[in-house]
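Sequence in, structure out. Go.
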Amino acid sequence: MSASTSSEPSLTPIKFSRLTRRGVLLGLSGPQLLMAALASGTLILGLYVGAVLLTFPLIGVFVALAFVGAGGRKLIEWAPIGARWLWRSSGGQLLYRRRIVKPRPAGTLALPGDAARLRQWVDPETDAVMVHDPHAATLTAIIGVAHPAFVLLDPAEQERRVVSWGRVLATTCRSGRLASLQVMERTLPESGKGLADWWEAHGTRTGSWASTTYAELVERAGPAGERHASTISISLDLKTAARAIRAAGGGNRGAAAVLRQEMATVLAALRSADLSPTEWLTPGDLALILRSAYDPAVAGALERHGGVGRDLATAGPVAVSESWASLRSDSAHHCVLWVSEWPRSLVFPGFLAPVLLSSGIRRTFSLLYTPMRTDRAARDIRKKKTEYISDAAQRQKIGQIEDAQQTAEYHDVLQQEADLTAGHGVLRCTGLVAVSATDPDELERAVAAIEQAAIQASCETRRLWGQQAQGFCAGALPLARGI
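Output:
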């Protein structure tokens, strides 16, 4: 009996940087410092006029706004969100009803809110749809991606795929012309089309009892299932790529030519990572995704019946109502959660499995990557280091103790600097989960289940209060839009 000398390959654990809590001075943000200044000014004014007791209620309000928290934010930090919500409420912007008898301008996507400005452009060479955002100056293309179940792979294969995916992200960083990259994974009710196609191709239709029963079983089993679909969207920054666009002829054709170069680069990177990209999405494919997001009740039927519902001009919702905590569209209620904390300790790459493999819940998980140019990332890191050292000196002067959170954030900055020096890129990552259900009670149960799954994944989620419509466009639609 001989002892084996082979070493079993193992996964490398990873750790995420903390969300910075550093403020402008002594850990206080700008609005908090403003409230503290107003409280001090009010106290000095009270001392000057001899009415200190009368100023105490006002000082108490300023102190409460600056230091009392609710929902993970200080009260003063809710002010911009609340003001924008009141402004939209007074202007009737929380309700959207499509004017079905009035045609929309040609080339628009018929979406509500600030997404109404989006325009479509069909590339004549690839037949891919490109979504133009004239305000953000971006041009976006989307591709579908097929991949094996990551959690079922052996550790060596998982490690190899993680390294390969890191190279894909590094490619987007090196480009310098991409504004963002979105990875979207969504659950869909199984339309049964694949099962029906297989039965059509391989089934034996003899008219016997067994054949008839099997055909009925295939007909019923398909819509009861659930499947996962993934897309990757890349967004070209038209301002950064202005010179290349002018060299390519300018206008939409020039921008499309530059975006095609980025599409070819990303496509090659995806194939090198052993992913299976499909063709770039056509207007019909994008229309199906948009319609399924706003009206999930008809998603299975639209996919099953081929050419129906593939007009991008009519893919938007008929009605949308937004509330402070949720969003209601044609046939569903939605709630968008923001992943506010990624795992603080070492985790393995499959740590999101509890969220992504949750069954019986309709949800869309999106990761929005914003690549930073190397020079800009280096300046940002130097600025953070200077501010941390300055804050530490200020705290030492007034005798304040350095806490572990500030030390850990400083070490994260040093690690980012070391990674940048070693040739890696810097990406800002935002995670959003859009949960959908048929009624408000079911929605709350689904949100609670996703929050519990996020805890199992060592993540923390927060509901996007007062920003549900904007969060839905960013998290549930493959348009690579920020929030």
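Check: The longest helix spans residues 374-397. The radius of gyration is 26 Å.
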